[in-house]
Amino acid sequence: MTKVSDSHDREAFPTGEPVNISRRRFLLGAAGTMAGALVLGFGLPVRQVRAQTPGNHAAPGTHVPAFLEIRPDNTIRLQSPFIEGGQGIFTGMAQIVGEELDAEPMSFIVENAPPDAEYTVMENGLRITGGSMSVRMSYSTMRRLGALARHMLLQAAASQLGVPLDTLTTEPGRVIHQASGRSLRYGQLAPRATRAAGNSRRGQWNCRCQMLPA
């Protein structure tokens, strides 16, 4: 179960900011994650929708509603807190994250979060997709998620190849050192990237692509 366990974890898991949970907040295997995978999770701002429901509200934030998992086999898993009902939201999220991560959308496995009230991101406990709400709620966070993952993979490659970080670039699914012609798949770098995660802080990395105005 992907659980934010206590008040200390909540403070270290700011809403809208991706955080490495490969070791600290994940019970590996309970959520089907692979050993050696790089796992980044994030919370989303709690939103209220017009269609109110009676009864007790859910308690958003008690479980990590979404995460990105880069696996050693080079597949990428994205857990979505939103429901896919034919609108193409899973494809859209893979495209948004993939644009920053530099990964093809076809390499993503996108899944719904478990059907549990503790995974909701709306104040009244509903889990719906409509009116472009899912993209509007998560767009900037998804961009940051992909950007941080790419930065961490570049850090891992610099360490493994023994080269400066600024000599590396990426192409879909790979980190490239053009001067030597060497390259490493994201999956090869995932285990090392989990160890470098503690050095990744906002301000050391930026989104690759120009952000759209709000």
From TrEMBL:
Superkingdom, taxonomy of origin: Bacteria
GO MF annotation list: isoquinoline 1-oxidoreductase activity
Transmembrane portions of the chain: 26-46
Protein EC: 1.3.99.16
UniProt domain Aldehyde oxidase/xanthine dehydrogenase second molybdopterin binding: residue ranges: 63-198
Enzyme class: oxidoreductase
Keyword Transferase applies: no
Keywords tagged on the record: Membrane, Oxidoreductase, Transmembrane, Transmembrane helix
Entry-linked Pfam families: MoCoBD_2
Keyword set includes Membrane: yes
Record protein name field: Tat pathway signal sequence domain protein
